[in-house]
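Consider this today:
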Amino acid sequence: MSEKKKNFVKPGVFKRLMKMLITFYPVMLPTIIVLIIVNAVISAIPSVFMQNVTAVIENALSTGTSWAETQPKVMHLVIILACFYAVSLTVGIIYNQLMAFFTQGVLAKIRNKMFAHMEALPIRYFDTHKRGDVMSYYTNDVEAMRQMISQSFPQLLISCVTIVSILGIMMYYSIPLGLVIIFGAVWTVAITKNVGGKSAHYFMAQQKAIGKTEGVVEEMINGEKVIHVFNHEKESEAEFDRVNEEHFEAAYQANKYSNTLMPILNNVNYIIYVLVAVAGGIFMQLNIPNISISGLPFSIAVVVPFLGMCRQFSGAIQQVSPQINSVVMGLAGAGRVFDLLDEETEQDDGYVELVYATEKNGKLEESAEPTEQWAWKWPHRESGITEYVPLKGDVRFFDVDFSYNPDKVILHNITLYGEPGQKVAFVGATGAGKTTITNLINRFYDIADGKIRYDGININKIKKSSLRRSLGIVLQDTVLFTGTVMDNIRYGRLTASDEECMAAAKLAGADTFIRHLPKGYQTMLDGDGSNLSQGQCQLLAISRAAVADPPVMIMDEATSSIDTRTEQIVQEGMDRLMNGRTVFVIAHRLSTVKNSNVIIVLDHGKIIERGTHEQLIAQKGEYYQLYTGAFELE
């Protein structure tokens, strides 16, 4: 695909954008358009008054009428013109106030719409798109749309209405002179299409290059420590130089053509002005009949106002070209925003819900008030009977196959189970499929074949929000949010009280270090937790999972960044947290999984061994090699 084709604005973007704007403000947008048209039409009226004033003065000179007799007529016209300008001023003030509210309101609604849609996207989307490029939607693309909506669209509309109005007035007074200007206008449009088209092409390339540049910068900032550790500075600079050079080339070419266009158009307009003046003079000198609707002959009263209209007409056309570039950039930005909005959201066809339950007459019933008992509300579609299944945390895999793409199968025939209160550990080399299994439990991804049952219910039947509410997860990469320590712990359950959050922190072994912080639980944290150690961040993440109080816990390398002493504290907390829960643990430190009820050894997406620590050591298989190798390293 050629570069030009690749960067061109997608068809239908303008129509879709206008439909969205009308949906947001069905009354305000038409009102603004009417005000713009009124203002543009009024701006063409001075040409008519100039002709009338010139005609009055020319008539006075030819008839010998005194200034005293002519002055009232001229002043009458001037007063009327002043009234029009007053109306124009009023309309302009109202339009600008409405436009400011409209523009910012539209952008706010678009950002809300984008963010809400982004939150509904599957994890797969974020695994395959750079964060910097996603951020570019909210910054560069929305900014390009702001420029287009607040300035370019209104100016284009004003220019178009002015052109039509002035052209109509010119044809009314003189068709031959009007044709001279139309000839010049065709010349101007041809130049704008040729030079401006190239400029627009590169402006669109620039818009995409900005997103790519931001993606690389964001990636490099996140990996700055790794870059320094491995002396990768030169290679990083080379990578940035490459994308920056693409950005420079697109921006340079765009501005080269854009900056060349305006001087060319200025000189073309001067030539048109001269042609009109020369043509008018020749027509008057040779007494050529004027073809017009007004019936006026060629005279000073026609030619002189025509020169003013010529400048106004050329100026309106000249205003179109720079706005086209902004419109193209804005439409390119809108196209990218629509690409995000068109991304398929996470599908959820589940109908089994997690509800509070209470027991009456030996049977579970749904409770309107919060209780300590949870249950699955399972409406059987065939019989119409609703069954309430106690939430226990029994997770079972049956012959599960999975692949991120059809070309490469990641998991092969996985069969396993985790009963309530059991600790199930996954070990194996990187890429063996450990994290993938836990992603399937959360339904971040859906299986290709087989079944996963949760408390005897196929998880495809469970609503994802209910499923994830019943699961707690601590990731290898800790994610904290800007706010207090208490806020970050409460993120696990927003209804949790301060006492419950503190109890969760004690359970995870985080309470001691939290109380030594400057303001304890009210200490403010940066978004990335830079004012805490990595181990402390992980303890907060475990506390957050604990306050959620789920029946199933997933620990994905939860202790990988914690020192040995802290690991003992966390391990004790995890053991307390595990009581009565199903726990899936992924760990590279085999010492953390010794007390697991079952250890599953994975290799290239297949289960090759399973059993307790003692059983696997006795087998002297893969686990034995991993475990004894770990001790040798120690």
